[in-house]
Amino acid sequence: MPEQLPIVDLSLSGRELLDSLLIGLEFGAFYVSNHGVPQELCTGIMSEMEVFFALPEEDKKEIAFVKSPHWRGYAGVGAETTDYKTDVREQIEFGLELPAKEINSNSPTHQRLHGPNQWPSSTQDPNWGPKFRDIVTQYTTQLKLLSERLLVLLAQVVGMAPEQMLAHFVDEPHVRMKLVRYPKLSEAEHSLPNVESLFGVGPHKDYGFFGLLLQDDVGGLQYQHNVMGQWIDAQPIPGTFVVTLGEMIEALTDRHFPATVHRVLVPRNSSRQSVNFFYCPRPDAVVSPIPLPISITKTPIAQLDGDPNNVIYNAYGENALKGMCRSHPDVVQAHHPDLLHLAFPQSNTQSA
Known about the structure:
By secondary structure, this protein is an alpha+beta fold. The protein is built from twelve helices and 14 strands. The strands form three sheets. It has an eight-stranded mixed β-sheet with strand order 1-2-12-9-14-7-6-3. Strands 8-13-10-11 form a four-stranded antiparallel β-sheet, with no helix packed on it. The chain has a two-stranded antiparallel sheet with strand order 4-5.
């Protein structure tokens, strides 16, 4: 039983690098080192998000998540749910800065994912807002480049032409980034005295392709081993990102590489920060299963039983809306009442 996620060193090359990546894919999550993202940018975004979370509550609520029909902005502690349980975290969420699509009764539902961000400002320091936006934009650009590099490597591992893999992402990939703060236990109990669990975020899979997570030194992120079901700590390792496989990789490989169940424990002694970057296909992309090389499929990966209530859709936009509607039913009620069946699928099943 492994005690640590595998590490993929991107300074390697050729077969050595691809074999290392295959080990990470088989596990479902792994660290990447020597990734090329400047350390000062990682340090800088951690510093600026700390400033954001320290802003007065009224400043943060100016960009409340529920104000955006595109699922962007600030969500306070307890505002998001995972597996229908309250998350003990606060966060600000962004995507690519795109104009909203014109929506009518004939528009595909995935067009609602397009739209502008809500950017914070400070009543105490008018110069801080542009500085914050600049570093978020720089970070997004660097992580997008790293994601594209990983996609090319993934294509080589699974026997796809790189251009075939990248075709799912051309023009307007669905990029999501969350800057997250997990309050320490005493603060969490004060903020949410009746919360049903004390997970920062409960066990879940990501609905996209993969995530790249930058974490501070506090710890608390855990991954569930695909075979044994035991939880493994993703201990912070300086200079690395943690890569998590999402449901679209599971769809692409016909469940050979399943999306990884993971969770975050509420920290006991100090708050925790992380930057979660999700690189996902275009909202109109359909990710169909591909034939995998015999060298991969000759060793089947035993898997835990999946959640019967969690259908994975090959149409990425549909899969993304499923996840976002369940996490933020208040946004659905405020802006998309026709999608309430996605926010509360269990009640639909029970009433059918």
